[in-house]
Each structure stands twice: as structure tokens, then as C-alpha cells.
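User: Please predict the structure of the protein below. I'd like the answer in C-alpha cell form so I can feed it into my own downstream comparison script.

Assistant: Understood. Taking the following sequence of 83 residues as input:
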Amino acid sequence: MTGKKDYNKKLTQVTDRNNAAWRFKDKKEVEEFLSEEELKIEWHDFVESLPMLSSKERFGLKNSEVKKYLQNAYVGIIKKKTG
């Protein structure tokens, strides 16, 4: 079995906790929540961080090896709304 259910089970085993109950379902839900708190989010593809990752050198990984794991990942920078 693949997909979120598998990921959640594995995450629970690794971290000894399951945070699936309090995750946002998508980016839109995150944006709506933050907007209610007078915050905004700036989305970035996680691949943008590739040049900054120290783990590549530490584990002898090439960019191409790491990139495949980051292609569908993203990170958000949360800022206070102004004006």
C-alpha cells in the first residue's frame, strides 16, 4: 500500500506519534487559517534549498539523488500581514 496512509503509519512508527489529526489538508487551508490570524505565507519549492543542504556533503549525496525526494515538497515562510 502506498500514499498518505502508509506515510502516516511510518511517521507514527518513527516519531512515536501521529500528527495526522492536526495537519492541514492543503495549501489553501493553511492560507485561510493564517489569514484569520493576520498572517500570510509565501510558498517555495523545497528544491530551492538544495544548494544550502549540509546533509548532502555529510552523506556523500549528489544533487540528483536528493532532488527526486524534494520535487513534490514545499516550504512556507510565514509573515505578519502589513497595512
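That's the full C-alpha cell string. The longest strand covers residues 39-45.
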